Amino acid sequence: MKHAYIYYRIDPAQEATAADRIDALLGVMAGHCAQPPRRLHRSDDFAMWMEVYAEIADYAAFTAALDAAVRSLGCAAFTQGERHLECFSPTDSRAPGSTNPRS
Questions:
Q1: Domains plus CATH for the chain?
Q2: Degrees to nearest 5, angle at CA 33 with 99 and 31
Q3: pTM for this predicted structure
Q4: Residue 102 has pLDDT above 50, yes or no
């Protein structure tokens, strides 16, 4: 299973619009995750937001659906700069032959 983390800065003047659209986005994307997606903001910077998508079984289908939903919901209208997507996997699912970083 993979986990996706997306971070970006919103326009503070459009916070209500951003919240409505991102919450709608999370609802659309919930079917691609084993756990409900979440919206967070940085503790010391309320304009820096993060979406967390946990336990994604089909990452290619997830990213295709995410791209389509972001476009259809107009999520670029309230962001300042780019949305940054990072993908992580549990450490117990390393590729064969990889080394333990603690060794």
A1: 2-90 (3.30.70.100)
A2: 155
A3: 0.86
A4: no
